[in-house]
Specification:
The chain is an all-alpha fold. The chain contains 14 helices and no strands. The chain has a single domain (27-205, 219-395), classed as MFS general substrate transporter like domains (Growth Hormone, Chain: A). It has helices at 2-21, 28-58, 63-91, 93-111, 117-145, 151-179, 182-200, 226-252, 259-275, 279-283, 285-305, 309-335, 343-372, 375-395.
Amino acid sequence: MLRTLSIGSRQDAGAVEATAVRPSLFTRAFVTVALAELAYFTADGVLLPALPRYVEGSLGGGDAAVGLVIGAFSVSAFFLRPWAGRASDRRGRRLLMVAGASLFALSVAGYLVASSIPVLVAMRLLTGAGEALFFVGALSANVDLAPPERRGEAFSFASLALYIGIGAGPFIGEAVIDRVGFRAAWLVSIALAITAVGLALRLPPMRPAAEEAEPGGHRLIHRGGLLPGLVLLAAIWGMAGFLAFVPLYALDVGMRGASLVLGLFAGIVVLIRSVGARIPDRIGPGRATRIALTLSSVGLAVMGLWRSPAGLVAGAILLGVGVALFTPALFTLAVSGVPANERGAVMGTTSAFLDLAFGFGPATLGFVAAGIGRPGTFVAGAVVAALGLGLVVATRLGRARPR
């Protein structure tokens, strides 16, 4: 009898321990945040093929104009993200998500009356402000709602929304443009952003408790986000150029459009982040970051040097694998050991480098395209990603990270 009780007690203890080791991730709030992200990034994805075609076709702009329009939103987003991070820590994640998606919808409504490149650039600056608020709020919510030992997995699943959005969005955007026109594409994007607002309103405020605050908290620029931010800059620079110029480069190499390439790229990311969501946690975020940067650099080089549909597809696959591993691994490194009331600041600081990449990446690569041709943009992006890999190795990021 005592032995039976002992065995039962050990079994119960093992069950409790297993539950403690693997706490629940997919709570109602976590899923709601992910759905809001899906709606928001699908709205963003609709714009990906639409904006380059609108600038070059309807507004008569060249490669440099395409780069400026695509990257303009990153200027305002860059300056606002650190402030958004601090506001997220003080006011809560929900407020930023609602405000960001609302401002996004308002800015895209401005595209309806943008009859010149300067006006469109001005509207893109507003889009960037909405991006800063929503992205920081949503990313901080993902961290808050995830158990510490499952953050890499949480980032993988949550970021599926982003890549499903930029995968499905271009198909929607190109279909709407071909059948109805650009105005209809803007309206579809607005409707999706409003859907994100409605979902975000169903969330709790998600404001970190005041008693968690520590001396030095609520910093506008968080030191812990600087090194991960520089690595993020290097990794995303080339991807930003890929997203900006692949709609036109696909036509250059004889394809009918970029929806297949963008869909394949996003599909690879979705597959790895769903089936292999725990990879960054299992192999370690540092190792995953190094592998990701290597694959991204090689993929971009393949696209630029193998100038054919096959080369574009092969490079997109490699880039997709690299991107799939990179973001969850890097953001897991960024928030490691950071108190809850400072996570927004770290996310704001780190993700500000995302805006530098999406702002200066397409803009500078636009001038590269104008000077030596569009294939050169992908080769240049490969070089920058390789420099990021060198930075990770030199600083031992993910191995012995100073706090």
